[in-house]
Amino acid sequence: MRNLKPFFNPKSILIVGVSRKAYTFSYTILKNLLEIFYRGNVYILNPNADEILGIQSYHSLEELPEIPELAVIVLGKKIAEIFEKLAKFGVKNIAIESELRIETEDPILIENLNKISEKYSVSYMGPSMLGIINFNNNFTTSIIPVRQYLMQRHRKIKEGISFIAQSGGLAGAMGWWAPSQDLPISKVIHLGYGFDINDADVLEYFKEDETTKVISMFLREITDEIINVVKELAPLKPVLFFYVGKDDDREKKLIDVGGISVLNYIELFDLAKIFLWCPEPKGSNLGIIGPSSGAIYLIVKEMRNQGLSLAKVTQEHKEIILDKVGGSTCKLGNPVDYWPPERFVGTNICEIYNTSSKTLLKDDAVDGLILALEFFIEIEFDFIIFDKIKKAFPDKPIITILIQAEHEGAKRVTSRATTLKIPVFENEVERAVRGYKLLYDWYSKIKKK
After folding, report:
1. Which of 33, 161, 334, 379 could be cross-linked to 38 through a Cys-Cys bond (beta carbons 3.0 to 4.6 Å apart)?
2. Per-residue pLDDT tens over the stretch 369-403
3. Do 370 and 262 contact (CB within 8 A), yes or no?
4. Is the peptide bond before 179 cis (omega within 30 degrees of 0)?
């Protein structure tokens, strides 16, 4: 396995050719590092400046007080010449973030880079690399702005998502984008061309990375190397991918070796939270609690599509639900349809979900629970009740679906559910149910290979 730690978490970094002009790529890399309070040593090389953003600018490599662990090149000219100077100086890890069009550039450039890399035992990423965002270790080489508050939020997470994007824009957007549920993000990378270190090497690195629990990939190309690594990786960590290319055979191969294909880009993150936060499902039989038959039918229809079943609860648990919940509760005790409630009062609704959830989860036939919520601001529903419920039943997945929930109520539930690490899907019934099925399939088919 390639040692990629110096690229993701170097003790020192040199940025070659930092511009004094704001909003340029090289300027942004330096600005990002300063704003996120990167704790390593930062060096910049610009013979025409004495300092930039308060950081001393060195005029030559020989002036540097140490050999940096990582060097970043953003200049568009004399790349091979700069690369060789860095290699001769002793730099062993170089990220080339210069934007190049290989088809129109001198074809000898890459050949020269590879020769220099081999001669001096240098590892390099790029060219045309957007960079890395390492939330976990508070480091970035992104040429796009990265927000400090996001870096602080995800810093030192124990388990999170790592994202490989074969798109600079989609990788860079992770520096400011925040989904509706605050997912723990560990690492993000866009490699550009990847002539030396490639996406398969990064997958190998994520395989061993303790803070990476789930891997998501946006793919334009599926290489043999990616397929081979995913074959080894998939039984250990879920690998979600969204492929936008045309090679159906390669996509099928990636699925056959354990890659989990999602239907669109946002599912790389929306479904990842199920794999992050939900325990292993022991089966395909679900309990459902909902405020109306319509909401329940939406869920049941998708369950049929996915080959999932309604759990058949015991007579004892059925009687508890029929006796205590009221409404038009199904005579089978599952699903629980509590419409109409006696009053639109939060405490009443809370008690319905509290009693129903505990009763269903206690039943051995219930492998997981889906909650359907239709809230409006008059109902002061406190989702905190699921703190104790989740602790009491840590081995059963709980997934929440908000159906036509008024904004404030939805915001309140989503915030609390995120704290409790319970996935929430707003008006995404099919995605929520399919997410459970993918989770069940991964544990029952892929992980046990």
Report:
1. 33
2. 999 988 777 776 788 999 999 999 999 999 999 99
3. no
4. no
Nearest 5°: phi and psi at 288? -130, 135
Q: Where does 121-256 have alpha helices with state H?
A: 148-154, 168-172, 199-208, 224-233, 248-256
3-state SS assignment for residue 107: coil
57, 30 in Cβ contact below 8 A? no
Q: How far is CA 100 from CA 97, 107, 112, in A?
A: 9, 11, 15
Q: Specify the pTM.
A: 0.95
47 CB burial (10 A radius; 0-12, 13-18, 19+): exposed
Q: Coil, strand, or helix at residue 245?
A: coil
Do 336 and 299 contact (CB within 8 A), yes or no? no
211, 134 in Cβ contact below 8 A?
no
SS3 250: helix
The DSSP output letter for 216 is: E
- Please list the residues that pair with 218 across neighbouring strands: 165, 242
Domains of the chain: 5-275 (3.40.50.261), 280-446 (3.40.50.261)
Q: Decide: 117 and 123 in contact? Cβ < 8 Å.
A: yes
Q: How many CA atoms lie within 13 A of 253 on its CB side?
A: 13
Asked whether the CA dihedral 107, 111, 113, 116 is positive or negative, the reply is negative
In Å, the largest CA–CA distance within the chain is 82
- Measure the N-to-C terminal CA separation of the chain; round to a whole number of Å: 23
> Which of 250, 196, 201 is closest to 227 using CA atoms?
250
Residues 419-447 pLDDT 10s: 999 999 999 999 999 999 999 999 998 87
113 touches 83 (CB < 8 A): yes
Between the CA of residue 252 and those of 163, 247, 249, what are the distances in Å?
21, 9, 5
Cβ atoms of 136 and 156 closer than 8 Å: yes
Q: In this predicted structure, what is the pLDDT of residue 330?
A: 85
Q: Which two tokens stand for residue 305?
A: 């599509």
